[in-house]
């Protein structure tokens, strides 16, 4: 079987998935060329350090606990004693995208939130995240 769009000329195509993939690849190539090898290493280092900073701060909170003990790069999961959907809604009120409630994917992970931290997050933003969690009753 061949893909349906394989024989359609670009000007007659009804979707733009092929051009979107090429655009994403081009953007990634330009970004990587711009930051270079040292820049990529620095981005990775910042992701790692910042994710572990936030993880350590959340792990100290009374109503939240880490779910897994395995090493991680920039994503980690934590369990809330409060309903995860309420936690995420409260974070959204503070203009924070707090993560993904994992119950929809893994029913056994009730009230578990997967959070990711990238090099773009500042210490102030992460401290604001923790302050919002601390304020929840």
Would you give an account of this structure?
The model has no long low-confidence stretch (mean pLDDT 90). The protein has helices spanning 17-59, 84-93, 123-135; strands at residues 64-66, 75-80, 100-101, 112-116. Helix content is 48%, strand content 12%. By secondary structure, the chain is of the alpha+beta class. A hairpin with an 8-residue loop joins strand 1 and strand 2 (75-80). It starts with 16 loop residues before the first helix and ends with a helix. Helix 1 crosses helix 3. It has a domain at 44-135: Alpha-Beta Complex (Aspartate Aminotransferase, domain 1). The chain is globular, with a radius of gyration of 20 Å. It has a 4-stranded antiparallel beta sheet with strand order 1-2-4-3, covered by helices on one side. The longest helix has 43 residues, at 17-59.
Element order, helices and strands? HEEHEEH
Rg estimate, integer Å: 20 Å
Average per-residue pLDDT, rounded, comes to 90
**Largest sheet at a glance?**
4 strands, antiparallel
CATH topology of the domain at 44-135: Aspartate Aminotransferase, domain 1
Going by CATH, the homologous superfamily of the domain at 44-135 would be Aspartate Aminotransferase, domain 1
The percent range for helix content is 40-55%
Principal-axes geometry comes out as globular
CATH architecture of the domain at 44-135, please?
Alpha-Beta Complex
What's the level 1 CATH class of the domain at 44-135?
A: Alpha Beta
Name the beta content range. Answer: 5-15%
The side-by-side strand order for the widest beta sheet comes to 1-2-4-3
Oligomerization category of the chains in this entry: single chain
Distance between the termini: 56 Å
Total number of strands:
4
Structural class: alpha+beta
Instruction: Report low-confidence residues grouped into runs of 5 or more.
Output: none
